[in-house]
Structures are given as structure tokens and as C-alpha cells.
Design a protein that fits this description.
By secondary structure, the chain is mainly alpha-helical. The chain has 10 helices and no strands. α3 runs parallel beside α4, α5 packs antiparallel against α9 and α8 runs antiparallel to α9.
């Protein structure tokens, strides 16, 4: 139990420090001093600072991976429902993981040898999931034919994630109000969706 508590404590402290200062600026001594643990604890639990950083990133992405696995195992009735569920889950996860967007941006702009491949792998899985869902929607006649699924997947990722990257600045410029994350997710998804839904589908849903 003590080992498990020590590991969890290191993960929590490392998440804050790596997110705020970056991988290179955080030392093992600083990590263990804040955790009130021996310097050897990082090597014991994670094999070193690099392994600890990788564990932090994997934990940040874990809820997204689990959500996609759940949606693939329990497929909603339509691709639209699947995309909507994904949008809502991503918004919720960003709220629970406020550093996630910061880790993503840092590794995209200046990737490390330890974190870059992890972020790339997880984002690749997300894009594949969205693209497969878009293709499924095209096959069912829900989305317009000729839709570029790669660009459409990137658009959806940008719409959902950019909000959380710019939110600290946006809050200073415009009143977002309470429950702004959930409200944004609903409106952003609707704005995105009706740019790809076939006109016949719109008519059927409205009439």
C-alpha cells in the first residue's frame, strides 16, 4: 500500500510540475522533495524521470482512450450519436484534466524524445476513431459524399481542443458564464455537425 501511495503521490506532483515548467526544467530532486520521498523513489517506481514523464502523459490520455474503447464496444445507434458522445466526453475529460491541452501543445510545438511519441500515438488513435465514424456516416448516407474525412477529423479535434487552449485568455475578454464547457461542447458540435450532414438528412431531421 505504501508503494502504491508513493507512486500516486509522485504522479500527482509530477503532473503539476511538468505541466507548469516543462520536462527539462524539473529535477528529480525537486520532485522527491515535494513528495517527501527518497530520490531513489523515482527510479524505483518509474525507472527515472523520463519514465515518470511518460506515465504522466499516459494518465492524462487514459480517460480518452477508455472512452473510445467503450464507444467501440457499445456502438451508439448512429455515427452522429457516436460523434456527439465523443465530443461530450472530450469536453468532460478536459474539465477533469486541466493540464491535458498544455501537455499536448507543448509536445506538438517542441516535442521531447520521451513524450512526443506518446502524444502522437494517442492523437493518431483519436483521428482514426473520428475518421472511421465519418466513413461509417458516409456509407449510411448521413454525411455528404466526397467528404474529406482526414480534414473533417482534424476540424473536429481543433474545434473541441482549441477552446481549452485559449480559454484562460477568452475568459478575460468575453463572459463565458457558468457551465461554459458543457454549453460550448453542445454548440460547437452542432456547428460542426451541420457543416457535414447531407442536406437530405437535414430535411428528414427537421421534418
Amino acid at each position: 500500500m505504501e508503494d502504491k501511495d508513493s507512486r500516486a503521490k509522485l504522479l500527482a506532483i509530477a503532473t503539476d510540475l511538468f505541466a507548469c515548467k516543462g520536462f527539462a526544467a524539473v529535477s528529480v530532486r525537486e520532485l522527491t522533495q515535494q513528495a517527501k520521498l527518497n530520490v531513489s523513489a523515482v527510479s524505483y517506481h518509474f525507472g527515472g524521470k523520463e519514465g515518470l514523464y511518460q506515465a504522466v502523459l499516459e494518465e492524462q490520455f487514459r480517460p480518452i482512450r477508455e472512452s473510445m474503447e467503450t464507444m467501440q464496444a457499445q456502438t451508439p445507434s448512429t455515427p452522429i450519436a457516436k460523434l456527439e458522445m465523443y465530443a461530450n466526453r472530450v469536453t468532460y475529460i478536459h474539465g477533469q484534466r486541466p493540464y491535458l491541452s498544455r501537455f499536448i501543445m507543448r509536445e506538438l510545438l517542441k516535442p521531447t524524445a520521451y513524450g512526443g511519441p506518446i502524444v502522437e500515438r494517442h492523437l493518431g488513435e483519436v483521428y482514426q476513431f473520428v475518421m472511421e465514424t465519418l466513413r461509417e456516416g458516409m456509407e449510411q448516407g448521413l454525411f455528404r459524399q466526397g467528404l474529406d474525412v482526414a480534414h473533417a477529423a482534424i476540424s473536429m479535434a481543433g474545434i473541441l481542443n482549441f477552446y481549452f487552449i485559449t480559454k484562460p485568455l477568452a475568459e478575460k475578454m468575453v463572459p463565458l458564464g457558468e457551465a461554459s464547457d458543457a454549453k460550448y461542447a453542445i454548440q460547437a458540435f452542432q456547428l460542426y455537425l451541420y457543416g457535414i450532414v447531407d442536406s437530405k438528412t437535414k430535411g428528414n431531421e427537421n421534418g
